Amino acid sequence: MKSTLFLLSTLALPALAAKPQTPTNFVIINLDDVGYGDFSCNGALGYTTPNIDQMAADGLKFSHFLVGQAISGASRAGLLTGCYPNRIGFAGAPGPNCNYGIHPNEMTMGELVKQRGYETAIFGKWHLGDAPEFLPLQNGFDTYYGLPYSNDMWPNHPQNDRFGFTDLPTMEGNEIIGYNTDQTKFTTDYTEKAVQFIEANKKKPFFLYLAHSMPHVPLAVSDKFKGKSEQGLYGDVMMEIDWSVGQVLETLRKQGLEENTVVVLTSDNGPWTNYGNHAGSAGALREGKATTFDGGNRVPCIVYWKGQTKPGTVCTKLTSNIDLFPTMAELSGAPLPTHKIDGVSLVSLIKGDEKANPRSSFVYYFNQNDLEAVTDGLYKLVFPHKHATYEVYAPGNDGMPGNLTMGEINQCELYDLRRDPGERYNIIASMPVKAMELMQIAENMRGDLGDKLTSRPAKGARAHGLRKK
């Protein structure tokens, strides 16, 4: 009898001694208009980004990471919901008093992890609608400080006679705390608040969304980085952003949170390239922001998770910012929404499974359900469409934009992205079978989402606007 009791108690010891697993924290640093070539580890010239470069050296760099749409508001809607933006009726970049925003039935990343008791915060640019019901505190975030939309949507816009923007609000929670704030303060303010949030929640699971307003024009930089680069103001701004990334990573190290925190650094879309020395670089990719060429949709993405990401690795698999939502769900143990999403989990890739290939295709939309291209990660089929182009006129200078005109694709074009990332050499005549394969993927998506329709509507009704003036 004694031996039986001894055996039972011995078997029970591991269960009694086991410690509960600590939930994984998440930090997503989402930059504004940073192109594929804007980090020095990706070839930037005239300035360096040593903290970002070190993050890449210590972690995982995705080389074929696409955003849901190549424009700020829609891209952020895709990131935060795991859906192609047009599935949720979201398009473009909503401005002041816009008549649509994130629908209450959609689940954001904040709402996702709050199911598991996370503290959540956003510091920076929101851009999912500015009516009270669309703002962060009503959509899964406990803390908010920043701008409800882009930093150029204010009276100082160089083309404001066309747009008619009024004063730009800075918000804390649901309250407007000022207008037309000195923009040289934003990068540092957001960073300091992010550091304070990490320190205050080091013993709790947390999700920090650091959504920098820079380097979207108008560019602004603090005195500590002004004039520091050889690239002018744009380089100065990128150096301050690099400092910000370093501050976040250093805080995680000091608080002993590195092994329990996934850090993602990415951008909402590619760069404007018609602002001359105030513009970013898409590297060797074609065009930039607001186009469905890869200069618009393909952005840098670095993931660092100490002990999980293999240092200095590059993943060439097809991935997207809409995939971060289900990735967070898997790592946090939070249940996914009951409605359909389009993202796939990247956990296998983050942990270095070289055989994993969670995403087999991606469809490029611009505006509401204009399907303009499709890729399987190796080849890209581009459908006839009109598009913005930066290539006809010389870029502007000193913060003033150059002319932006329209180009047109008149017939289907096929590109081999391995040999031709700049999408210059149409090979459709020599590979009709591949073109048909991609066309079928596109047709299936049109059948799923509809064409010129929306699968689920954005929230269109608003009781009142944000502005108090």
Characterize this entry briefly.
The chain is 25% helix and 19% strand. With 469 residues, it is of the alpha/beta class. A hairpin with a 3-residue loop joins strand 13 (370-375) and strand 14.
Assign the CATH superfamily of the largest domain.
Alkaline Phosphatase, subunit A
Oligomerization: single chain
- Mean pLDDT, nearest integer? 91
- CATH topology of the largest domain, by name, is Alkaline Phosphatase, subunit A
Largest sheet: 11 strands, mixed
Strand proportion: 15-25%
Count of distinct structural domains: 2
State the low-pLDDT regions, or none: 1-19, 461-469
Helix content: 25-40%
CATH architectural designation of the largest domain: 3-Layer(aba) Sandwich
Shape: globular
* Tally of helical segments: 11
**At the first level of CATH, what is the class of the largest domain?**
Alpha Beta
Task: Give, in order, the helices and strands.
Answer: HEHEHHEEHEEHEHEHEEEHHEEEEEEH
Structural class assignment: alpha/beta
Q: What is the count of β-strands?
A: 17
Cα-atom radius of gyration: 23 Å
Q: State the separation between the terminal residues, measured CA to CA.
A: 82 Å
